[in-house]
Fold this protein.
Amino acid sequence: MALYALRRLVIAIPTLIGVTIVVFLMVHLIPGNVVQIMLGTRTDITPVQLHQLYRLYGINRPLWEQYWLWFSGLVRGNLGFSLRTGLPIAALIGPAFVVTAELAAGALVMAVIVAVPLGIVAALHQRRILDWIARGFALIGLAIPNFWLGTLLVLATSIYLPAFSNFNYVSLFAHPLGNLKDMLFPMVALALSLMAIITRMTRGAVLETLKLDHVRTAHAKGLTPMAVNIRHVLRNSLIPITTIVGLQLGYLLGGAIIVENVFSLPGMGQLVVNAVNQRDYPVVQSAALFIAVVFIIVNLVVDISYGFINPTIRYQ
Amino acid sequence: MALSIQQSDISEVQTRRRRRIDSGLAIGILIVGVFVVAGLLGPVLLRHPNRMGIYSFAVPGQHGYLLGTDQFGRSELTRIVWGIRTSLIISIVSIGVSSSLGTLVGLLASQYRTFDLIVMRVMDIFMSFPAILLAIGIMAMVGPGVPGVIEAIALVYLPVFARVSRAPALEQQGKEYVEAERSLGSSVPRILFRHILSNIWPIIIIQLSLAISDAILIESALSYLGLGVVPPSASLGELLQAGQITMFNDAWTAILPGAAIAIAVLGFNVLGDAVRDRFAVR
């Protein structure tokens, strides 16, 4: 098992380095350089000052040297500085990531609480009214974009629930209740499509389990349907269900980026989008890298934990 | 007797399943068809999407506007139809490019070991980003506008199609008929395109419809964030972005474009599911 985990870790390292190269090139292939963007239309800069600025940002060096400077800074925990505010980017990412993580975790919990029971009920009532309702919900939930649902929630709360309508973000640690009040609707907006996916997949997993021989045996030996469902069907469906939930974790991160912008939550998504709009490329670069690294780590942890849950995976 | 009962049971299940798939296919084709026809004919039948009138924020049905007007008195119906056109062009072109290039990469990877090792690692790197983040990053690089959005979505989906086509292509490479073809001295392009591609294309077709529905979502998300299609051009995401600002004056400006996105995505999803089930039956 330790060997399996180690192998997965070793495979992830070249991918991580590749990700830093992609992010670096993406920002450095943009026409114009950091200094030109910072100066904008200012013309009162002497050539000497210009040269000093170039040296400060290391732009007169070859590309690979610039990459190395940035990369070695990253390894030491220095993510660079914002062009607009001059603040260290690590200080911007810290609080922003807390918001994103809370949003994603809340949406995940919400989705699992609704979708897993719904999927199980749908499977046990296959081709009956409850099944049709659950499947209709899954189909529609998957089609509604989270940013439209978010917009509608902003609109509806401002008309019908004014108490919930001012989305002024307060920290979870400072005002837990105020924070949850403001995070509730963003979490709902983010959770809907996840609910749809998990409902659908749970239903499928339970239907597969229902077909297995041991379930028929359990029925044949005279167990009550309730006992069969709980002890034999549910327990055996849990592995595919956890797999599905794990696979969706990373995608929550992408959804959160959009939903934050709908509700003006100061998370990673808003940080990145604002930085793109303000052409604050060092922030774009480091924040995008940070999100990608979290994405990779989450997927890695999920992968390795399957090795624990389901030992047959390890040998594939 | 027992045997005949079983057989009729099986055939009944199959017919029911068949009927379900066919109704799914019909609904999917209907919705997608309405959108495609609207996108094609809209510009012929309707006026220019930026033509302003004197009534702003008309509600649906008011002053003869079927879906009302926006803050500049522009017809919502006209703008949504033009928006559908833009969104469909972006989605279909970008997925067309990524599916053909991605399949080419997948086929070549199944043929050449070193190409496989290098290119699939690169694809892994691109798949290490959440799709929307990669799209945002590319938009930052190429700037807003329709061509930029097409490039972004095409690049996001290229690795997906490369992966989807590589695995079955590798499987075909191991089969005897490919071995036989090779020993007959057939050229590599002939083996890849005439033999392997003709055996794996259903797997790619199944992905197409679902990828287009994802592409519609990515386009609207980018435009909603103000990074994709920007005013005065109309796309479904751009309309929702504009509607979000004016929704407190007229809620319909936010409701209608979003509903159009949801119905389009629903249509492509239903179509994709039905196509997938249809191929799985065989």
